[in-house]
Amino acid sequence: MGCAYFRSMDEKPDDITGLSRKDVRLIRRSWKLIQNKSLLIPTGAELFVRLFSAYPEMMDYFQTFNLRESPAETNQKLSEHALTFMNGINLYVTYIDDPELWVALLHKVAISHLERLVTTKDMERMASFFVKTLRSQLGSSFSVESERAWDRFFYFVNTIYAQVELQINGIIRKRSTQTISTKTSSRTVAP
């Protein structure tokens, strides 16, 4: 009976993140493989190449590098952004056990990206390609269970992103409505 209790605790999802202890172990294990094999930049670069191949319009978000002019293999700016992105994922993995801090990090990243007009849909696309890229880089070391854990990881990330996007859009709509009503009331002439 004790063994079943620990197994169920191991698989019980966190109330905030939805990740179980087992998910966290699988995520950290696969992340450690990426780090140990010095695959941070290659994985990040492959992710962006895959993403831009499928959604070329997303390249418009990146003014600092242009894969149309310089191939990915020799594009220094792509490598720099790949490392920045992977370091961001590293922070998420590091603080996966501290949901409040992780949410705060996610809010900061969401605001930064929403200022650049990156939508929740764009982030969902990126997440999908990230998991595919992990599978490509890690091969048989990346189990189906690990893939599912990463899917849950990004479900949480994108849920927070979507919440921030809704909050910002609500503020914009409210300000817009206030501006319109102010302009309308200033044009109203009393009888």
TrEMBL record:
<dbReference type="InterPro" id="IPR012292">
    <property type="entry name" value="Globin/Proto"/>
</dbReference>
<dbReference type="InterPro" id="IPR009050">
    <property type="entry name" value="Globin-like_sf"/>
</dbReference>
<dbReference type="InterPro" id="IPR000971">
    <property type="entry name" value="Globin"/>
</dbReference>
<keyword id="KW-0349">Heme</keyword>
<dbReference type="Pfam" id="PF00042">
    <property type="entry name" value="Globin"/>
</dbReference>
<dbReference type="GO" id="GO:0019825">
    <property type="term" value="F:oxygen binding"/>
</dbReference>
<dbReference type="GO" id="GO:0020037">
    <property type="term" value="F:heme binding"/>
</dbReference>
<feature type="domain" description="Globin">
    <location>
        <begin position="18"/>
        <end position="166"/>
    </location>
</feature>
<comment type="similarity">
    <text>Belongs to the globin family.</text>
</comment>
<keyword id="KW-0408">Iron</keyword>
<keyword id="KW-0514">Muscle protein</keyword>
<keyword id="KW-0813">Transport</keyword>
<protein>
    <recommendedName>
        <fullName>Globin</fullName>
    </recommendedName>
</protein>
<dbReference type="InterPro" id="IPR044399">
    <property type="entry name" value="Mb-like_M"/>
</dbReference>
<keyword id="KW-0561">Oxygen transport</keyword>
<dbReference type="GO" id="GO:0005344">
    <property type="term" value="F:oxygen carrier activity"/>
</dbReference>
<dbReference type="GO" id="GO:0046872">
    <property type="term" value="F:metal ion binding"/>
</dbReference>
<keyword id="KW-0479">Metal-binding</keyword>
